[in-house]
Amino acid sequence: MKINSIDHNVDFLKRQAKKLRKSHVSAELNHVQALDLVAQKHGYSSWNNFTKNLPTKAKTITQRRPEIPVPAVLNYHHTLTGAIIGQYPNRKMSVKNHFKLGRLLKELVSEVEYYKKADKIIRGIRITMDTWLACEYDKAALDTATFNSIYFGINTYHTDVIPSIKRQAQLKTLLRRARGILDCNYHECKPLNVLYSKFNLAMKALESWPKNIKILGPKNKQIRPGTFVRVKTSKVVGVVLHVSVL
Hints:
Elements: H1 7-23, H2 31-41, H3 47-52, E1 73-77, E2 84-89, H4 95-111, H5 116-136, H6 144-151, H7 165-185, H8 190-206, E3 228-229, E4 238-239
Antiparallel strand pairs: 1-2, 3-4
Helix pairs in contact: 1-2, 4-5, 4-7, 5-8, 7-8
């Protein structure tokens, strides 16, 4: 019966061949002959036949990160005052990948709407990416309507306050996929590491759903105070402070 053809078995057979030579009565048994005999003992026609049937090693797929440019990060400024309010990677991710990431984040936001802890973290990730998108593409490169639809736009409505166990696992997969998009498109830098810390917090939240969630939000799908909104004609994000019922 053939043994498993892996590297340590090659060494094992070589040791057996060496022992066979030492124990052999005739000194005429050379190393090549001893290897052939040991290979035949394990079901191969010869040593060459054994080595030819070794499985090729699976290549380790290393995810290549983009090179770090100089400078690694750029500042972004307050729309009105011009003051520096944050930094973003000095790299432009394609609009196609922004759309992919946006779809994942919108689905996550929709599913965790009633889970306050996860909702706050994932919305924060979405706002960060929306800000980076605005820094990477001006109005000439990306029209306002398209820009507004990438990370905000229309969310799908869900029916379960607490998703099923299967759905919870799917949400964690969505979060991993979202982070994977960042891994492939941004270089190592402080703003990205800060964003990764938010992903870690989001994953911890998705791994510990509460058993019960009380729905305290407004009825009839009214916009909740504290919700970030944007008008169709502008990239500027605002926040809802008060909801009036007419």
